[in-house]
Design brief:
Spore Coat Polysaccharide Biosynthesis Protein SpsA, Chain A, UDP N-Acetylglucosamine Acyltransferase, domain 1, seven-stranded mixed β-sheet, elongated
């Protein structure tokens, strides 16, 4: 079935209600552009042929995402039917089912679309619509059915009368088409609305009048079909996706003490038996080993790496740094652009001063070192193996502390060099 399915992803709109200079589909959910989740869905479904229809700030989207598959450009943003028409132009020679998806509907699950595609194929339908049922249908297009319960059209909120407004079944916008029938009718859509736009949903009435077979499948979870049109919607979608991410980690053996106050970005890697404590924020491109303890109130920024058996605790920020196995940094501080070895003890209040006149420099702390509370490292610095810094020390830039050294003071000076046995 997968071999005769093509996807058209609509991502051309401005997203005016987002009130942003950023294209709508580039707004992030759990630290990832929302359209990225739609690309994932197409990949998970193993759909080999796909077209992304871009328009508003297309260059920004192409530069940031490098979308796979074909790209179509909607030069004038005159509606979804016109966008699909542009997508079809890139599918010449293809025969089969065309699945229409949207770059601003990022919560769809693989199982839901698999069921839709399967039902479309088994019923030999010309059009199969994914619908949903809600007690609060305000703002959505309502599904209109005839006396035989066949879908005959969609009425938008602004055009609905009191009877229509009582309809609980809504249009999600996700539709499977027989490609031949879609091509034959797409030019029949007329801009018979105030915005002079060509709406894809008008095809439902056209198919119905022609006697084409229209079927539908109800989504079991309406949250999956949520479109992102405002920052309010974005926040709701972020919460739903965060819950999914957290639950997936827990099912894989990661402990999350309070899922409501733990924020883990898409793509994070966490090993088994690691525990994440409340009010922890983990940004993208972070890897955490097994049996670690993170938080509470920890902030792991992009590029952070924790090896196995680390403890990073309260009010600690880490960015672009690698922390070796069995290293402890239990209390408040800042670790940036650092390479910290194994079995290191980082005292409370430690700061790596990594930024100086536009440059970010590296702090290296080797295995077995003990860093006293409130030590400041003015990078670049290198601390040798089993070295010790006294509380309140300031290690100046370009310092290279030898293995086993004990340093203290402002600036830090060598007090003694310990032997292998201390």
């Amino acid at each position: 079935m997968k071999d005769n399915i093509a996807a058209i992803i609509l991502a051309a709109g401005k997203g005016v209600r987002m009130r942003s200079s950023l294209p709508k589909v580039m707004h992030q959910i759990c630290n990832r552009p929302m359209i990225g989740y739609v690309f994932d869905l197409v990949k998970e479904l193993k759909i080999k042929e796909s077209v992304v229809v871009l328009g508003h700030k297309a260059d920004v989207i192409k530069k940031e995402l490098s979308p796979k598959g074909k790209i179509a450009l909607q030069k004038k943003l005159i509606g979804t039917a016109d966008a699909v028409k542009e997508g079809l132009a890139k599918l010449k020679g293809f025969k089969g089912t065309v699945l229409v998806l949207y770059g601003d509907i990022p919560l769809l699950k693989k199982d839901t679309i698999q069921k839709l595609l399967k039902y479309h194929a088994e019923s030999s339908s010309d059009m199969t619509i994914l619908t949903a049922v809600t007690d609060k249908p305000y703002g959505y297009g309502r599904i209109i059915r005839d006396r035989y319960n066949t879908i005959s059209g969609i009425v938008e909120e602004k055009d609905a009368d009191e009877v229509d407004k009582d309809i609980k079944e809504i249009n999600t916008g996700i539709i499977c088409f027989n490609k031949q029938k879609l091509e034959a009718t797409i030019n029949s859509v007329k801009p018979n609305n105030k915005k002079k736009e060509y709406y894809l949903t008008d095809l439902i009435a056209i198919f119905y009048k022609k006697g084409y077979l229209i079927e539908s499948l109800k989504a079991s979870d309406i949250n999956e079909t949520m479109g992102i049109n405002s920052r309010v919607d974005l926040a709701k979608a972020n919460s739903i996706m965060q819950k999914r991410i957290n639950e997936e980690f827990m099912l894989k053996g990661v402990g999350i003490v309070d899922t409501d106050s733990t924020f883990i970005s898409y793509g994070t890697k966490i090993g088994t038996d690691t525990t994440i404590y409340p009010f922890t924020v983990i940004e993208k491109d972070v890897k955490i080993g097994a049996r670690c303890s993170v938080g509470p109130f920890a902030h792991l920024r992009e590029g952070s790496r924790l090896k196995d058996d680390c403890i990073v605790g309260n009010f600690l920020e880490i960015t672009r740094s690698t922390i070796g196995s069995k290293t402890l940094a239990k209390h408040f501080g800042y670790i940036g652009d650092s390479r910290i070895g194994r079995n290191v003890n980082i005292g409370a209040g430690t700061v790596t001063a990594n930024f100086d006149k536009g440059e970010k420099s590296l702090t290296v702390i080797k295995d077995g070192s003990c860093i006293g509370s409130d030590t400041i490292f003015v990078a670049p610095v290198t601390i040798g193996r089993n070295a010790v810094t006294g509380a309140g020390s300031v290690v100046l830039k370009n310092s290279k502390i030898k293995d086993g050294s004990v340093v203290a003071g402002v600036p830090a000076k060598v007090l003694k060099i310990r032997g292998k046995n201390g």
